[in-house]
Prior knowledge:
- The structure holds 2 protein chains of 2 kinds.
- By secondary structure, chain A is of the alpha/beta class.
- The mean pLDDT of chain A is 90.
- In chain A, strands 6-7-8-3-9-10 form a 6-stranded mixed sheet, sandwiched between helices. In chain A, strands 2-1-4-5 form a 4-stranded antiparallel sheet, with helices on one face.
- Chain A has 2 domains: 153 residues, P-loop containing nucleotide triphosphate hydrolases (Rossmann fold, 3-Layer(aba) Sandwich); 69 residues, no CATH class.
- Chain A is globular and about 60 Å long.
- Chain A contains 9 helices and 12 strands.
- Chain B is an all-alpha fold.
- Chain B is built from 14 helices and no strands.
- The longest helix of chain B is centred in the N-terminal third of the chain and has 36 residues.
- Chain B starts with a helix and ends with a helix.
- The relative contact order of chain B is 0.16.
- The N terminus of chain B is likely disordered.
- Chains A and B meet through helix 2, strand 6, helix 3 and helix 4 of A and helix 10 of B.
Amino acid sequence: MAELAPSRIEVRDLTLMYGHDTVLDALSLPIPAGKVTVLAGPNGCGKSTLLRAIRRLHLGQRGQILLDGVDIGSLGAKDLARQIGLLAQSPSAPPDMSVEELVRLGRYPHQAMLQPWSEKDGAAVHRAMEGTGVDNLRHRRIGSLSGGQLQRAWIAMVLAQETDIICLDEPVNHLDMAHQLDCLDLVAKLNREDGRTIVLVLHDLNLAARYADQLVFVHEGRVRALGKPEELMMPELLAEVFEVDAAIMTDPVHGRPICIPRGRAKVKRVREVA
Amino acid sequence: MSLVMDRASAQSGLGIGAIVLIVFALFVLLCLAGIGFGSTWISFDKVAHVIFGGGEKSERLVVLQLRMPRVMAAAIAGAAIAFSGYLLQRITRNELASPGVLGVVDGAALGVVLFLALYSNESNALTVPVAWQPLAAAIGALAAITLVFILSGRQASSAIRLILFGIAVAAVAKALTTIFMLIGPIYQAAQAARWLAGSVNAIGWGEIQIMAWALLPVVAIAGLLARELPPADLDDVSSRSIGLNLPVYRVAVFAVAALLTAIAVAFVGGVGFIGLIAPHLARLLVGRARFAGIVTSMMLGAMMLVGADLLVRVAFAPTEVPAGTVTAIVGAPYFLFLLMRKDKTNG
């Protein structure tokens, strides 16, 4: 952990409830600058909610989220959108919208009410489409794209936003293996080459371990553990957080830990009798 | 910016421009026909003559005092309702949304009937200026759409929920309207019934002036709001994450749309389905282009009401059938068609 950069984002004692359900329970989490942070955890653990809270799409009842030391609650909507981008879990756009039109929407936070489209906006859209390889699809309608193309178009939209911090909520869901790697390699490249801070929610633990600089296990609304993948991919921890009995090995290609689940772990935690 | 893109957008711009021009030409023709047709036929050149200050005295009377107000009122109201429908369909991302479906029209009707009931004396004359009538309609419309919003609660972003609650609120408003008509004086009830069905036959220049002045600021605000429509086309999470304050924006668009419809129906009555069909047809004609879409919607809406009024005058004369019945007879099957098609795609 020592070599991790200072935090861009600092979640402090965040409690977030939906009605009477506590989704995040006094959760604290630093997000280091220029690193890939992956949030993982079982269904319903609060990881997607946490990601959206970081982007201020959900408001917590207690605690705060600091962006470079400033409470995100004090920032304007467009101001925040110029600093943190977010790719939604299942984004949707009108099927007759063109790819280019979608990507251009990423420039929305950079435009004032009466300020026309600038060359800077055009250049950002161009870069975003080139970087994601959708420039040849720019006139295609959203409704006519394949799953992989569609995901790249959406990532291009988020890239056109030109934010230092990019959050992606399960970006590889519904993609086949090749497109999963395409997508995550692209995200890794954004981090490596442009030094962007990335926060990802991933379901697949092996992908999480492969791409994360900082891996975070979220469990029952709290951060159960965080650290390098090698530190977190431990059988006891996986049994506790994911309720799987898994063997851990080192991936011979990337040198990252991978887990092979044998089956469901026996739940050791004592449940209160109903 | 690349050449390829500029050329492409210029091309599509030309196509859309041509369509808008054709719709405009049809609109002008229909307005002239609306002035020309009636118990006596006045040819287009005579109509033009009168408009530019010439013509015989009788022709001047018929054109300027009898027919032009009807056509003008129908055109302005139809355009306003269509604009309202355009905004609602875009903001709910649902082609089934319209001022009628969301309870705005019936809410406005309830407002007007209450107004007539509260401010009439024994001889059925209004005790306050008729200029207050649009205010009553606006209050009714805003109350209805606010209720729809509150009932939808947390799921106000779900178009289907909004529409279902809208239909429910519309039904309640309609029932209350009927009750107030029944317990009100008979004569006034007959007047109210005509108004509810939608009719432009009794409108004079004074009322048109009030309607236009009331609409002007609302249309200006709606035009400004419409600039932010494209980010709102995305799902909630995405539109908010690119910096649109969606909850506030959505309320603003709903309020402006409700006002547009309320002011229009305050004068021409409960004409249905224009707010549903005009924007939908416009979208088929010009696609997603925003400015062209709004202008085309407004012209189509104007044409629908001018055309409906023309039809009832020509086909049913001398009985004055309310124009709203025509828009309803054409509109209801269209709504059903959209519903069934939607069902199939959800399928």
